Amino acid sequence: MMKTNYFENLINEIDLNSPPPENEPQRQAWYLARAAHLVTARKKEAGRDLTFRVETFGCQMNARDSEKIIGILERAGFSEAASEDADFLVYNTCTVRDNADQRVFGRLGRAGHLKRNRPGMKIAVCGCMVQEKTNVEKIQKSYRFVDLIFGTHNLYRFAEYLCNTLESEGMQIEIWDRADRIVEALPAARKYSFKSGTNITFGCNNFCSYCIVPYVRGRERSRAPQDILRECEQLAADGVVEIMLLGQNVNSYGKDLETPCSFAQLLEEVCRIEGLKRIRFMTPHPKDLSDDVIRVVRDNAKIARHIHLPLQSGSDRILKRMNRHYTKDQYIALAQKIRAQIPDVSITTDIIVGFPGENDVDIDDTIDVVRTVGFDNAFTFIYSKRAGTPAAKMPDQVPEADKSRMFDRVLQAVQETAHGRAQHLTGRTMEALAEEVNVKDSRYITARLSNNMLVHVPGDPSMVGKMLQVRLDDCRGFYFFGTVVEK
Ligand code: SF4
What fold is seen in the domain 429-486? Predict the structure, then answer.
């Protein structure tokens, strides 16, 4: 767990005989101290450890939120369990697609059975899904064994909710319509000791017509640059070598700050932090990717040679209906500018196929962009209606059979360009960060290149977390087998 010394000091100074302070983060420090006190007493009473499990659905933002939840649970004295059969179980949910909700409800049903056999078990549901009233009503009606429901805007109060849940029975519901502040300095766990994500913005102002995020994550809020830099410095001091700056639209970072700071300026500052070897960011919106950002990436070798630039569609007509604010030609011109200025960069993308009103002529345009840009990889999704978004109400929804035919066409084009781009790198020696022992064959280590591609190399666990020079011997489509030439 990353130790935030300031917050640790606050906890150590807490007097639990005084009422909880009104100010943050002092208030959360008080509740965390109280939760730790309760957990210690319960462990003693039970004669065993108390365990937690956090199940995360969805995107990188949710993964980062889960690290914050885990940081609190660990600091309170819980140990991580290998399964959902745990004393404190949290579902951190996603609602980007309707079927994501159904998956969570399925898991919740099974958790109810676990709870019957585990006296004192507590179950919490948080994240984007519970920002929607209908989902909370469904949990209240059909999953009455749930102890805590809290939303995305008040995650910083988790220590308080944890404490209240441990001390009371019945369902506690804490959902806010909007965020009132960004609270800094709370503890967070890290999945990897050598790499980490850091939020730079929360929420989104873009309202793409298919997307629920602005409704459940709220309007865009930027963290102050000094808070982000302090966190990055602390991570580097802790041994982290790679940082991913996270936001729904990183390019609009800083526009809402009292003293504006652009994303390009922030990137430059992060590059100056000693100890950090690689910096990534996710996700830039094509309409806002500035020349300054391209220049900063070009001029700073620490910034990964990878830009994920969501296209969504190559058809001007569909882009307009998606409310994306760029045209096919503008997107292509931007991608070509990036490639011209940063020659070894990889460009990856997201594509939605089967958006309302989309037909084969639109798909021709999308394929044309795929081939012209030559994406290094693309996540291709079949459009599915997301209740609560404008696109869900559009009358001309595409039949499933047409969607799947169009999807196959796009996928084939993506695979062709991606394989061609990867093949091109065979034989080169590149820097790769060793991330983990290969899950299929423990004689190999899986490492990530600056361009975000994976390479598997013979090795041992001692290499994990190190930057390696790797020769890319054998291209297998989207990944490589290679050899370490220098550690
Ligand atoms: S930019 Fe569009 S797709 Fe991305 S989170 Fe915002 S509304 Fe959703």
Answer: OB fold (Dihydrolipoamide Acetyltransferase, E2P) (2.40.50)
305, 374, 404 from 298: Cα distances, Å: 8, 19, 39
Contacts of 134 (CB under 8 A, 6+ apart): none
**Angle of the 360-369 helix axis to the 328-341 helix axis, nearest 10:** 10
Chain segment 1-22, per-residue pLDDT in tens: 444 578 888 898 889 999 999 9
Cα–Cα distances (Å) from 486 to 187, 298, 425, 469, 483, in that order, read: 36, 25, 18, 5, 9
In this structure, the residue with its CA closest to atom 1 of ligand 1 is: 206
Mean pLDDT computed over every residue of the chain? 94
The finding on whether 216 has its CB within 6 A of some atom of ligand 1 is no
Select from 469, 406, 435, 209 the least CA-distant residue to 322.
209
Q: Is 208 in the pocket of ligand 1 (CB under 6 A)?
A: yes
Residue whose CA is closest, atom 4 of ligand 1?
Answer: 248
CA of 446 to the centre of ligand 1 (A): 31
Smallest CA separation from ligand 1 atom 2, residue: 208
Query: In this structure, what is the dihedral angle of CA atoms 223, 179, 391, 92, given to the nearest 10 degrees?
Result: 90
Position in ligand 1 atom list of the atom nearest CA 214: 7
Per-residue pLDDT of 45-93, as tens digits, reads 999 999 999 999 988 888 989 999 999 999 999 999 999 999 999 999 9
Query: Does 283 sit behind a cis peptide bond, omega within 30 degrees of 0 on the bond before it?
Result: yes
What is the pLDDT confidence band of residue 346, given thresholds at 50, 70 and 90? very high
User: Average pLDDT in the 215-232 region?
Assistant: 93
CATH 3.40.50.12160 fits 5-174, yes or no: yes
Cα–Cα distance measured from residue 371 to residue 368, given in angstroms and rounded to the nearest whole number: 5
Confidence class of residue 207 from pLDDT cuts 50, 70 and 90? very high
Instruction: State the CATH class of domain 197-304.
Output: alpha beta
- Amino acid identity for residue 434 in this structure: A
Q: How far is the CA of 62 from the centre of ligand 1 (A)?
A: 15
